[in-house]
Amino acid sequence: MASYHLTVKTGAKGSGASHAAYISREDKYANKDKYEDLEHKQHGNMPLWAKDDPLLLWKAADNFERSNGTAYREFEVALPREMTPDQRLELVNEFIKKEIGERHAYQFAIHCPKAGIEGKEQPHAHIMFCERINDGIDRDPEHFFKRANSKNPELGGAKKASAPQSHTQRKEALIALRERWAELQNNHLEKHGHADRVDHRSLKEQGINREPEKHMGPKRVYDLTIAQASAILERRAAERELEQANTIRDSLIDLSGDFRTALAERDKKLSPALPENDELRAGVEAFKNSFAGKQEFMRGFEEYKQEQQRQRETERQEQLRKEHARARTKDNDRGFEHD
Q1: Tens digits of per-residue pLDDT, 221-249?
Q2: C-alpha triplet 90, 94, 98: angle, nearest 5°
Q3: Could you tell me which residue ranges the MobA/MobL protein domain spans (predicted)?
Q4: CATH number attached to the domain at 6-191
């Protein structure tokens, strides 16, 4: 089932290069099991000196942006797991074309980790871009991040796109952006033959009477008991069935038309979503078994580590005992020499 998520973030001076390395799984994030989820990475609109290595742009921002400046701005978006990797890439590229265009240097990465409880894909994209506007003037890294000169642009740095906004203006701009992302995502879902749709509105605005689910990181998932994890899965299945029941109810309010036609149309709209609930319910027991196996393995692994630590401590104590014994022997030998 497609889910909606879009957040806008900013990164302060000094954080650009490290965040770029994180999203692209480079430097200290390379070749590590927990970061083996990179589906695609790409960059564009870079200055000539960073055309082949986008990390140079973010390092320059960290070094030359003003002390209280922003090194980058980021869109973080969830992507439909129903789509193929190529379809997700197409969606992200069109979003960048519409929202960033050729005005800003950008770098993005698509990650596709597995969900901690359900084990399903959780594809999402991190889209970093520089707020400095590409105006066609060739500047070196230090010059690029200087203060803009409106009278003589070539003497100053690249101008920043961000302008002072009130709280209301920022809120309205974010809502508009979220709506555009939902519309674009739904267009692509329809284009590729998927029945699911996303909605940028809050659950309350959609008339759904439940609290939004909080994100659970790997550590919190690991600390769950089997009963707790199963309860979460069963609650999700029940909530989806309730939402479908409400959809059925709403679709049958107007009975002025042909009843059979209305039922056929309703079933056509709802049928693609039903197998997922059946699959989710059927997978609860399988999850219990696999989750129990993982928990048992981790308990055994922790016991093994503790045993190794005890063994090393025993060996260390034995080594100290031997060193003390040798030291006493040497002291005794020196005593005999004096006698």
Answers
A1: 455 555 655 555 555 555 556 555 555 55
A2: 175
A3: 23-219
A4: 3.30.930.30
